[in-house]
Design a protein that fits this description.
Length: 185
């Protein structure tokens, strides 16, 4: 699947118009429903390949990937399968039973992690994961997302020494043939 074909397929599968409140609290006239592309193997496979290629180019010394629950778990798994790196799951909070871990998976403090995410608006969810990974002694300076909505997330991450590398930026995702006009807000 070419980049243009993937872009068009993502928009066709996940682009919704309406009045939406985003995780960041911002309102938007459009929404990219990540579950509409993360649950489709015909899209998840190529997305995992793209994320893996970006990781190899921009974070080649990563020992592992990490994906915040719930949205990025499928992406981390697809990227792991595409590139062969093991991955970690970052919980929103430590579980209250069993091992009571916030970071699931095997790792050694000091390892470099490439964080994987679906759609980034303000960067808040990623920053929570960065904090949890760093608290566990892991090194995080790169995050790869499927879509950067270009609404401040990259800048917020940069203020915490994390570089955001998107597969697509909203402007390019939503401006091509067969795609809706780039929405505002």
């Amino acid at each position: 699947m070419t980049d243009d074909e993937l872009r068009e397929a993502l928009v066709a599968a996940a682009y919704l118009e309406g009045d939406f409140v985003l995780r960041s609290g911002k309102r938007s006239r459009y929404y990219l429903d990540k579950y509409r592309f993360e649950t489709r193997p015909d899209l998840l496979g190529p997305i995992g390949e793209r994320i893996s290629a970006i990781q190899r180019e921009h974070c080649p010394d990563a020992a592992r990937l990490a994906g915040p629950e719930l949205g990025a778990v499928a992406l981390a798994a697809a990227t792991s399968l595409a590139g062969g790196l093991p991955f970690l799951l970052v919980r929103k909070a430590a579980k209250e039973y069993g091992t009571t871990k916030r970071i699931e998976g095997v790792f050694e403090p000091g390892e470099k992690i490439c964080l994987v995410e679906d759609v980034v608006t303000s960067g808040g969810a990623l920053l929570e994961s960065v904090a949890a990974l760093r608290e566990a002694g892991l090194v995080v300076d790169t995050a790869v997302c499927v879509v950067d909505r270009e609404e401040g997330g990259a800048d917020a991450l940069a203020r915490h020494a994390v570089r955001l590398r998107p597969v697509f930026k909203a402007g390019e995702l939503l401006s091509g043939p067969k795609s809706p006009a780039k929405p505002h807000g």
